[in-house]
Amino acid sequence: MLxxxxxxxxxxxxxxxxxxxxxxxxxxxxxxxxxxxxxxxPAMIIALIAQARVKSAYNKYSKIPNSRGLTGAQAAxxxxxxxxxxxxxxxxxxxxxxxxFNPTTNTVNLSPDVYSGTSIASIGIAAHEVGHAIxxxxxxxxxxxxxxxxxxxxxxxxxxMFLILIGLVLSQMLWLAYLGVILxxxxxxxxxxxxxxxxxxxxxxxxxxxxxxxxxxxDAKGVRKVLTAAAMTYVAALITSLASLLRIFLIVSGxxxxxx
Length: 260
Ligand SMILES: [Zn+2]
What we know:
By secondary structure, this protein is mainly α. It has 8 helices and 3 strands; from the N terminus they run αααβββααααα. The protein has helices at residues 2-25, 34-61, 72-82, 112-116, 120-137, 141-169, 174-211, 217-259; strands at residues 90-92, 100-102, 107-110. A 3-stranded mixed β-sheet has the order 1-3-2. A hairpin with a 4-residue loop joins strand 2 (100-102) and strand 3 (107-110). The chain is elongated. The termini are far apart. Residues 1-29 have low confidence and may be disordered. The structure holds zinc ion. Zinc ion is lined by residues 128, 132, 198, 201. Residues 128, 132, 198, 201 line the site of zinc ion.
């Protein structure tokens, strides 16, 4: 709980910094940004709570050893091999909760605590990342869609604000602001497509640790808690981007009504 309160305080701090930036942006036509306070701040609070819950689930289950005493790397190897993915390497990356699957190098990268740890959290997180490796090998459709839209999202998010500012400043060019909103929506679409990919990786992880006997029933309960908490951060990211999109849309459509 203390952790949540600390995060709240940090969130408030971050809010005031961002809001100053927005008031600075007000000279370009954004005005005092009530939509930020009404939409984005609540979404950010949800995101902070989701983050705190992952940390607390991880802190709890990274201290409880799994019943078979397997490390994350061993569990990952077992699942990969059972899918014929002997050629997918498992490497160690620095940091905490930095675990990922890199589709470019086709490697499962585990943080030190997950790689060599024998906790319930270690096998759960390792199995989840292997879930992504299996998605990649099986050409899982939502995963392909997600990879395909990454460049569009990067492009859209980088130029959208620029277009919106120009569209709001130049009265004859409001269509540019709407184009900016459409481009900004690619971020939300990306977050939306991320959900089935993440939920599916966790579902695969749960199936594999059970069917291969990596986890006992009791271990599996803990794994589920860690993975569910992690999945909620992706839901929170979607909510945050939806709130930002709605805010920007309302600012742009308000920009039109002011001109009438
Ligand atoms: Zn994932």
